[in-house]
Design brief:
single chain; alpha+beta; Immunoglobulin-like; Thrombin, subunit H; Pdz3 Domain; 3 domains; 6-stranded antiparallel β-barrel; 28 strands; 45% strand; globular; transmembrane helix; membrane; Stage IV sporulation protein FB
């Protein structure tokens, strides 16, 4: 009996040793499995990233079409694929649905641009009293429920596009019927208001007591240009009306070169600003087709030159961006683009606005000239490891050395450089 016990004990020790050796042998494989990224459903990665994770334990099966998405290095549209993780190619572990996106190359901008934007309709930016023939002050538009930020589209079924259109239509309505019917856009909803017109003794015209505006102009920075389609993106953030802070719905607009002739240096509590003027003999011109949360977009003609980039460079998708050094390109004097060093301090993957990265200026030359990030620098392209990753968008009011940046992938979606399927 004692001999049998010794034999069983020996067998147990040997079996345990074999299990331990087996575990140690496959431990690197389990470590590799642990390192496999946890993709969100319908997440976006570049083709190079997919190739990088296709190792011993992964099998890829396209969900749409029969073409192997990993081999489609020249594809122009994205493809949804099902990634299955299997141990030894046999035992299923998990599956993820991911979207493989095409490799896109863009020419980084950095040029200073003058932006002129005409709104759809005419925006209400203020209200005023109208002094009637009896000497009393009236607020007809306010009493009718018109609010600052409303966009007037029609007056008595007549489209209005300028402040003069509004003034003439109100006066004619007052002469004809003593009131006017306004069709307005408010927070995306169409509303209708009837306003009693008041004959103004000071101007000898019928008025309703509104200040209106239909255009905006300013200086910003070009982010990128795509040579084949001639599409561009700029600013990195939406253009809002200066008085109402409401998004301007674009009816028409243009982009031309601008020249910077002065810099107002930023300081704590007071962001700095580029002071520039539009260039008459501009090297390029563009239209404005879209004003979105990620910037302005359209098509461009002419010469787009950046001395630091002779050719277009690849785009870095969100998953490729990392905390660490990067460079931005912008104009501080005349039309000369210069390169400056920054640090990506934080990446915020879940934000849906134009504040996806926190950046800090580390280049002493830029700090000496501007104090950090200033107005007019919005849209300055950010490049990391030879890829364009985004654009500067905002400055921290209490710390001009730091600000926000938007992911370049958000901008190229708005520009229409990827399919609607990719942007879904």
């Amino acid at each position: 009996m004692e001999g049998d016990t010794r034999v069983n004990t020996r067998r147990t020790v040997i079996f345990g040793s074999l299990l331990l050796c087996t575990f140690l042998g496959i431990q690197p494989l389990f470590q590799q499995l642990g390192a496999i990224p946890e993709f969100k459903e319908q997440s976006e990665i570049s083709i190079s990233q997919v190739s990088g994770i296709l190792s011993h334990v992964i099998q890829v099966e396209p969900v749409i079409g029969e073409t192997n998405a990993v081999m489609a290095s020249n594809m122009e549209e994205s493809e949804v694929i099902q990634v299955s993780y299997k141990l030894f190619g046999i035992f299923p572990l998990k599956t993820s649905q991911i979207e493989v996106v095409p490799d896109i190359k863009l020419l980084p901008g950095g040029q200073s641009i003058g932006v002129s934007l005409q709104a759809k309709g005419v925006m209400v930016v203020g209200q005023a009293a109208v002094t009637g023939t009896d000497g009393k002050q009236n607020y007809p538009a306010k009493e009718a429920g018109i609010e600052v930020g409303d966009v007037i589209l029609k007056i008595d079924d007549q489209e209005v596009k300028t402040d003069q259109d509004v003034a003439n239509a109100i006066h004619q309505a007052g002469q004809k019927q003593g009131f006017s019917n306004l069709v307005c856009l408010r927070n995306g909803q169409i509303i209708q208001k009837r306003i009693i017109t008041v004959y103004c003794s000071e101007t000898n015209r019928y008025r309703v007591g509104l200040y209106v505006r239909n255009e905006a102009a300013g200086v910003g920075t070009l982010t990128f240009y795509e040579p084949q389609t001639r599409k561009y993106g700029a600013l990195g953030h939406v253009i809002n009306d200066a008085d109402t802070n409401q998004k301007i719905e674009v009816a028409n607009g243009s982009v031309i070169a601008s020249s910077i002739y002065a810099i107002e240096k930023g300081r704590r509590g007071h962001p700095g600003e580029k002071v520039g003027s539009f260039v008459n003999q501009t090297l390029f011109t563009g239209n404005i087709e879209k004003n979105s949360i990620s910037g302005i977009f359209g098509t461009m003609q002419g010469k787009i030159l950046n001395p630091y980039f002779k050719e277009a460079i690849p785009v870095a998708w969100e998953a490729e961006i990392k905390e660490g050094p990067a460079k931005i390109y912008t104009v501080l004097d005349g039309e000369k683009i210069e390169e400056y060093e920054v640090q990506i301090e934080r990446i915020m993957h879940n934000r849906t606005d134009s504040k996806n990265m926190v950046i800090r200026v580390t280049d002493q030359r830029l700090l000496d000239k501007t104090g950090g990030i200033i107005q007019g620098m919005s849209g300055s392209p950010i490049v990391q490891d030879g890829k364009i990753i985004g654009a500067v968008t905002h400055v921290f009011v209490n710390d001009a050395t730091r600000g926000y940046g938007v992911f370049i992938q958000n901008m190229i979606k708005e520009a229409g450089l990827v399919s609607n399927k990719e942007a879904a």
